[in-house]
Design a protein that fits this description.
CATH class: Alpha Beta
Radius of gyration: 17 Å
Bound molecules: pyridoxal-5'-phosphate
Shape: globular
Order of helices and strands: HEHEHEHEHEHEHEHEH
Structural class: alpha/beta
CATH architecture: Alpha-Beta Barrel
Strand content: 15-25%
CATH topology: TIM Barrel
Largest sheet: 8 strands, parallel
Distance between the termini: 26 Å
Number of helices: 9
Helix content: 40-55%
């Protein structure tokens, strides 16, 4: 077993506890997802042995391959955090327990149609930048998208997700996400999840109220080059 991995995981978890205490929050209400993209499936096995149960992947093919290899690990939850394509909805549904990246009605419809009767947990990805080309629904349209998702029988809207913009302090961006989460909750009162916070900004996300952190390199070490 990789002791450096265990050390990095423990140190991130200690920082999450500190950030929660500073914010007057109970650390137990925060789910730490380990983002393993570009790393081999064996890293997930190592993390599983360390007690990790929530894994994030951002590419459908990689999610599918790793899920096929490791899907039998009991209690492992797969979070799909990448751009979702409508023609891959079936594959995403087959592997993911939670999809964080619903950002338009068509992908919601495709995920719903690809269902086999089970209910899929989904989050609305919100675009916090002013670049409409970035993934995510613009905040002004989040409420309408929430209403659409709520009308689909096999999707359960759990909340919102976002990535902080690169060219801005994370705190004000996360404050906009928080406001958006409140609007979505007016449509779906139990959509209480807020997925935000990565290696560089998870303490700020905890301070804003994030319930799900998506942390990669601080735990896994540097990612191998993309293929
Ligand atoms: C890669 C990725 C993360 C984790 O990034 P780190 O900076 O390595 O913690 C979180 N969220 C999304 C959507 C990602 O693609």
């Amino acid at each position: 077993m990789d002791t450096a991995l265990a050390d990095r995981l423990a140190s991130v978890d200690a920082r999450i506890v500190d950030a929660a205490r500073d914010a007057g929050r109970d650390p137990a209400e925060i789910t730490r997802i380990v983002v393993t993209k570009f790393h081999p499936a064996s890293l997930i096995t190592d993390l599983y042995a360390l007690g990790v149960r929530d894994i994030g992947e951002n590419r459908q093919q990689e999610l599918t391959a790793k899920h096929r290899e490791l899907g039998a690990l009991e209690g492992l939850r797969w979070h799909f955090i990448g751009q979702a394509q409508t023609n891959k909805a079936r594959a995403v549904r087959a592997a993911a327990d939670v999809v964080h990246s619903v950002d338009r009605p068509r992908i919601a419809d495709a995920l719903d149609a690809a269902g086999d009767g089970a209910v899929l947990d989904v989050l609305l990805q919100v675009n916090l930048t002013d670049d409409p080309g970035r993934g995510g629904v613009v905040p002004a349209e989040a409420e309408a998208l929430a209403a659409h998702v709520a009308s689909l029988g096999t999707l359960r809207l759990r909340g919102v997700m976002a990535v902080a913009p690169l060219d801005e302090e994370p705190a004000p961006a996360f404050a906009r996400l928080r406001a958006c989460a409140d609007e979505v909750r007016r449509v779906v009162p139990d959509a209480t999840w807020i997925s935000a916070g990565m290696t560089g900004d998870f303490p700020e996300a905890v301070a804003m109220g994030a319930t799900h952190l998506r942390i990669g390199s601080a735990i896994t070490g540097p990612r191998p080059a993309r293929d």
